[in-house]
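Teaching note: in complex prediction, the entire set of molecules is handled at once rather than each chain in isolation. The prompt given to students was simply: 'Predict the structure of this complex.' The entities are:
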Amino acid sequence: MSINNESRERLIICAKKEFLEKGYEKASLRSICAEAELTTGAVYFLFKDKAGLFAAVVSKPIEELNALMMRHLAEEADEDPAGYIHVPGDHDEFAAELVELLYKYYDEMTILLHKAQGSGYEDLPDKVIDLLEKGYLGTAERLAGAAPGKRVNRYMLHWMTHIQVDAFIHLLSHERDKDKALEHIKPVLDMLVSSFVEYVIEDDK
Amino acid sequence: MSINNESRERLIICAKKEFLEKGYEKASLRSICAEAELTTGAVYFLFKDKAGLFAAVVSKPIEELNALMMRHLAEEADEDPAGYIHVPGDHDEFAAELVELLYKYYDEMTILLHKAQGSGYEDLPDKVIDLLEKGYLGTAERLAGAAPGKRVNRYMLHWMTHIQVDAFIHLLSHERDKDKALEHIKPVLDMLVSSFVEYVIEDDK
Amino acid sequence: MSINNESRERLIICAKKEFLEKGYEKASLRSICAEAELTTGAVYFLFKDKAGLFAAVVSKPIEELNALMMRHLAEEADEDPAGYIHVPGDHDEFAAELVELLYKYYDEMTILLHKAQGSGYEDLPDKVIDLLEKGYLGTAERLAGAAPGKRVNRYMLHWMTHIQVDAFIHLLSHERDKDKALEHIKPVLDMLVSSFVEYVIEDDK
Amino acid sequence: MSINNESRERLIICAKKEFLEKGYEKASLRSICAEAELTTGAVYFLFKDKAGLFAAVVSKPIEELNALMMRHLAEEADEDPAGYIHVPGDHDEFAAELVELLYKYYDEMTILLHKAQGSGYEDLPDKVIDLLEKGYLGTAERLAGAAPGKRVNRYMLHWMTHIQVDAFIHLLSHERDKDKALEHIKPVLDMLVSSFVEYVIEDDK
DNA sequence: TATGAATGAGATTTCATTCAT
DNA sequence: CATGAATGAAATCTCATTCAT
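The expected output is the structure of the full assembly:
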């Protein structure tokens, strides 16, 4: 890209710190710039505005997260519905990749999850949930279709998708160590997968 | 004394609206007062400051919530551990009361859950989780103690308490109708209670 | 006076404290009234306004001080000019009375001297100096008139009156104990009286 | 850099005027900025805050005053104690320099002496007195040591230092013309120097 | 006598943003 | 590529004062 990435990067690092401490709205461009030994004008030259600076901090993690989600969803669509018969450890691979990503961008994820109010990115979890829910809906319908007298409970589908996402958010908020995180997430996923079939697919009427 | 609470109440109503729209920090005393047709000075006379006004909006709901939690916890402590063997519909009574309360103070609860950043009340869910977790730990230990070769998985205990609380938050955020909410919450609770025994109580080592 | 002096007096006591701590301008009627367990309205009923409350705190000490000054000046006017020939201990009597008064109203005097900015009483020392200077001018002129080739240096007269007053202010600011104060003031007065003759009465041309 | 100090200087000039009129606390940034045809934000950019603006007004005079004091004290320390035997006109040189400085910064000095309450600079005279007193204590002790049966009266030392400083404050407050001021101060200094030896050095017990 | 309610004006400060250079 | 200067709007809060009751 540009020749002098130095100021840009210094600004991103300092912004990350400030956003993490104070949240998007309370973060002060002045403080960020003072820390980066630049003036506020530089932000407007390099990033257009405060929102642009925030985007520069979080966009790469978001893109990688999106890519991972899409791959996960595509794989799930290819799967045989029978695969949803619960086998403990099923989703370990995806979970491992996700955890890897989440902890690689620990600060950025923390900002996105807890410090993004007012930034236009505050609804990332909701977006992820929507995305996943659509994918899971296909699976659930195939499952329900294959069993007579069954149908999908849409509220439970949404909620279970929600707590699945929440499980990772919770993990990130409560466990700073990646390896311990991987240990924690296993029974959680088992529970989620097993409950999915039992509570999302309900008796017709 | 204060027979004439009119201004006070007008202020609370307008504040509720503003907090709901903009969140605690972005809420403007000026706007609130303009809407209530009073000057900002009136806020400082009637409530001490912005925080005091916020407290006036949310304190009653919080107190009632706390009282309900305490009662719930006390009842649970009295229960026979055998009671935890899952019978669908088990916790319906408590759930019903809780839903009743949550929807009675729908706006206030929404504010507390999503719009309280910076107010000193932002950690209400965490506090509730802590409270419940302590109560549930007792139950879980009695359960584990009664079964040989079992022990409590503390991370799962915390997480399951977390998603239980989250279940109600989710409900409030996604379903405006109280009766539908009651329908939604039933299978959720069933799942929670049943999974609790299975995943919180794990094999020793 | 009025039947119920209680509120009035409580207000005066609390006001004295507040003025002493914060000075006239920074003193807050609200704080004073809160401390006195009354409302601000009471001040306006009992004292007209903030200035009136201040006056109520300081007027008695001022009156007594004025009375003492007048007496001192009258006595001095009666004196034989020869009396100004310096005899150490000369003015001890007046000094003792003044010190007595100053320390009887220690708080009030402190307020008047250091905490009265903005109250309309900030120039008390100047007024006292003016008063004394007029009296001393008579004495000085009689003295100069009695000695050929001598005249009064007006600037020195003013300055010496100034430091005489200042001597008492200084005393009050640096010595809380009345008896020690009386010890300190003696050589000061000796110096002042002796220098008076020497420097206020100068050679003609 | 700052070739364009225009706003900064306009602000300082207007601030000086406002502080002189109303004192530090009552001075209004709004008024200052309105007069300077700038917004209050400019003050916060150019000086950090109200205190910073005040400092910008008075810091140079203070530094020069301090430098002069130090030089005076250093010279005095070098002097032969015998030098204290009173020769009228002794200290004229120092006095002349001091008066020069005081009248060069007439407005700033007036602000510092009478309008600085609340600014953190209100105790300038006390600081000067402390500084001088320490220097004079050395002189007084050498003097007392050289004469058998004599000792230093600390209260008189402090008070005489106080009135020395006060003499210049008095001068500044009562005489706007520098040359007349120089005339006035001469006999004052004579009196001070001569009384110093007589009243600060007292008989032992 | 005194209260409780409210005003209205003012205070300092902070912020994102702009723009000529 | 970045600075330095400045804006303008908004923020919370504090105060002396008033007045019907």
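Point out the following to students. The longest strand of chain A covers residues 150-152. Chain A has two domains: 1-48, 58-203.
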